[in-house]
Please model this.
Amino acid sequence: MNYYAHTKKSGEYQFLRDHLITVANLCQRYAKPLGIGDLGYITGLLHDIGKYSALFQERIRGRNIQVNHSSAGAKWILDKDAYRSLIGRAGTARYIARLVSMAIAGHHGGLLNYGTQDQDGSFLKRMSKDDIPEWSSAWEEIVLPNSILATPELLKPEKIILLKDKLAWSYSFMGRMLYSCLVDADAIDTRNYVNDSDRLIMEKRERSIPTPSILLERLDNYLTEKFELADQTPVNLQRKRIQDICRRRALLDKGVFTLSVPTGGGKTLSSLLFALEHAKRHKMDRIIYVIPLTSIIEQNAQVFREAIGDDAVLEHHSNFNMNDYKENHTSHEVRMVKLSAENWDMPVIVTTSVQFFESLFSNKRSRCRKLHHIANSVIILDEAQSLPTGYLTPCLQALEELRQNYGCSVVLSTATQPSWHRLGVKATEIIDSPYPKGWSVFFDRVNVTVHGSNEDRMEDDQIIDWLHSSNQVLCIVTIKPPN
Model:
């Protein structure tokens, strides 16, 4: 009997064995830089073994029935004999097997809460059900590794001792990264089989995608030309000085940085210069700009396109107007943008704080697909003081996890830096300390004149006189007038 995984509209079938092996290899490739390559391979290999059931094969051949195929591999790897044969007998083996199991169980509907056997919708409830059709034919085609898988770095004894109270957090985060690798590999192989045009589009893009080194050359040329054409005013000279500092400081080791540049100091291009130079230095994959305000995200994205090229920048936010994009780009380019937005496989991503942080904590397959591509990136939080205070602790904890265990550098960029050290954030200022004096003289655009004092009561007539003495006024009051 032939076992199939997917079918095209034309009636052609994809062999199940081919799908499992391709997904396993892709998942391993994505997971290897994260230190979990072996786990990625076995997760990909097991994720659809439930499709070896006779019932599923009837379904794919046209019978209108529902078949639970994603629980088979998830349940099998939890068996003690199974996980010991693959992962070993160390105390962490069953916890590693659980991560594999949860990724497989959620690879269609999303990650499940662990829960209890009595809790509807929980992982344990799902694993307690006896609704998996017989699928042992899988072992006629699928060959498991004949050696014990490498233990992830995070779960080696010496690392566990260092992590201490953070172990559970890091463990769960690693599970999310494994899940991301699986669902992205699964989606890509399915798409490539079902839709040849999408496969060709992405293969062409992958051959031409610019590296951070190439983008740095483009940016250098752009900045040189821009500086030569600009008037040599004190403001422009100071902007050039800031860029030179950012280029030099980009050679620092990976870490958490602050970029304190006054408004008007050219922070957007200076931060991009730092990020690309830093990425080139440390062989990093991409730059991710996280911007809190949709009012400025399109403006920044346009600056990046002018500086490094349209082929390098992906906007992923609710304000992105696909209809406008269609008017100025080919159908091939439009489709490429849509596909790239699914997993952020582009060198420069411009997104919102909501999109970025919700993806880090979401359980949905569609949002989690991009997580493994956040690893080994330079993450720039523009207007960092705008991080939501109610969620500040988990946001900062996620950023620290990305820095510590997934090769990221983080840049907290703003003209008004909070006291990060009081929040437990150890950051290195990019602009050399002591902070250059006199910058406010070059970049200040507003003169502030204080009338009265906090201790004195201001009479209405006096305030009205002050208002009348100005050509343009914004008056802010803190007391609601009586009805």
Observations:
- The mean pLDDT is 90.
- The radius of gyration is 27 Å.
- Residues 167-194 form the longest helix (28 residues).
- DSSP finds 21 helices and nine strands in the chain.
